[in-house]
Design a protein that fits this description.
The protein has eleven helices and no strands. With about 190 residues, the chain is mainly α.
Amino acid sequence: MKLHFKFKFLIKNILKGLLWMAILAVLYLLAKEFIVDENKEFWLKRFYSQPLIIYGVYVGSEVFFGLFPPEFFMIWAYYKGDLWHYVLNLGFFAGVSYGAGYIAFLVGRYLQRVVLFRYLGRKFFSKYWPLFRKYGAFLIVASALTPLPWSAISMLVGTTDYPMKRYLNFALFRILRYVIYGYIIYQSHQFG
């Protein structure tokens, strides 16, 4: 397959990611306007006074296939403190996400040897097997940068005997996602 089609796949998914972020932004603004601003004391007490619960929910979400979009946690981090707290939180979030992908990759490596998983894995990953065969590393990069399921694709890649060092290098794009999205969220709140 020509490189052109692989880049087209990557760009298409990045645009989907930006659209997803725009939808989240609109939902966030609506919720902030009509729900949070109406009862600030309740929300501040509920979410900002117990950061360990938020961190726990985030770690669980990243380990279990991204149940919640990380952008919600970035917004929470923005309101939690000053710029340095925000940057430290983004670093924590990015590290956890990168680590969760690596753990999923290792789980995929282990499960590839389990006969039952070979059967179940074909069913579970049926949507992503053809994409991985067709796009390879571009699927890793696309899932790192966009709302594609990062942990699930990392696990899939682990089941394919993909070289670990190459996976870890391409997985670094996950950190880039946090830098870009974190910057966008920070800048959008500066004028809001």
